[in-house]
Amino acid sequence: MTTLTQTFKIPESIKKGSKFSFCPGCDHGVAVRLVAEVLDELGLRENTIAVASIGCSVTLYDFLDVDTIEAPHGRALAEATGVKRARPDKTVFTYQGDGDFASIGMAESLHCALRGENVTAICINNTTYGMTGGQLGPTTLLGQVTTTSPTGRNVEY
Ligand SMILES: Cc1ncc(C[n+]2csc(CCOP(=O)(O)OP(=O)(O)O)c2C)c(N)n1
Q1: What is the number of alpha carbons within 13 Å of residue 34 lying toward its C-beta?
Q2: Site to substitute for ligand 1 among 28, 132, 144, 146, most atoms within 8 A of C-beta
Q3: Which residues are 123's β-sheet partners?
Q4: How far apart are CA 136 and CA 151, in angstroms?
Q5: 131 lines ligand 1 (CB under 6 A)
Q6: Is 105 in the pocket of ligand 1 (CB under 6 A)?
Q7: What is the Å distance from ligand 1's center to 6 Cα?
Q8: Ligand 1 centroid, distance to 113 Cα (angstroms)
Q9: What is the pLDDT of residue 26?
Q10: Spelled out in words, what is the top-level CATH class assigned to the domain 28-126?
Q11: What are the DSSP calls for 16-42, one per residue?
């Protein structure tokens, strides 16, 4: 019988000694780790500019060891457009919550795609506005209980 073991190490693109401040059970930590692993794999760490948005992704610069700027709520893809046009040599990506990407930032997301900007958008869909307390958002599932839909999301109102 063969036993397979795998030892995980902290990716190079995670800042040394940093500790995630996400709530227990939150998947943002896994997502940030996966982003860091991809940056390592592709050798992009020193040639990337990340755009973090408002929401639980706001602290991205505390963990990710790449140049990072903040965008006002919903404006990450507008900022990423400017960054990429100013520095076309850089890989530019956004890291946004679903509220940021698909609610307040819907216009920015849609028009960035329509313009075909050469940037990557990463949307972490936790189906609520996480940072402000888990309220119903555009991606909340039918029947899903949130702090503002205590009896479950209902399409009729
Ligand atoms: C213009 C503006 N409107 C509202 C807020 C309040 N606000 C801060 S975080 C947030 C929700 C973020 O939710 P989401 O984008 O889904 O990210 P998550 O925290 O779930 O990762 C809101 C509404 C704000 N900071 N700025």
Answers
A1: 8
A2: 132
A3: 96
A4: 12
A5: yes
A6: no
A7: 37
A8: 22
A9: 85
A10: alpha beta
A11: TT----SPTT-THHHHHHHHHHHHHHH
Query: Taking Cα atoms as reference points, which of 123, 101, 131 lies closest to residue 22?
Result: 131
Q: Which of 131, 135, 140, 146 to mutate to test the pocket of ligand 1 (most atoms within 8 A of CB)?
A: 131
Query: Is the model's pTM score more than 0.85?
Result: yes
Q: For residue 148, give the amino acid letter.
A: T
| Structure tokens belonging to residue 46 | 């020193």
pLDDT at 80 > cutoff 90: yes
Q: How confident is the model at residue 118 (pLDDT cuts 50, 70, 90)?
A: very high
Which residue CA neighbors atom 3 of ligand 1 most closely?
Answer: 73
The domain spans of the chain are 28-126
Copy the structure tokens of residue 14.
């995670």
Angstrom distance (rounded) from CA 59 to CA 150: 29
- Whether the predicted pLDDT of 48 surpasses 90: yes
Are 134 and 25 in contact, with CB atoms under 8 Å apart? no
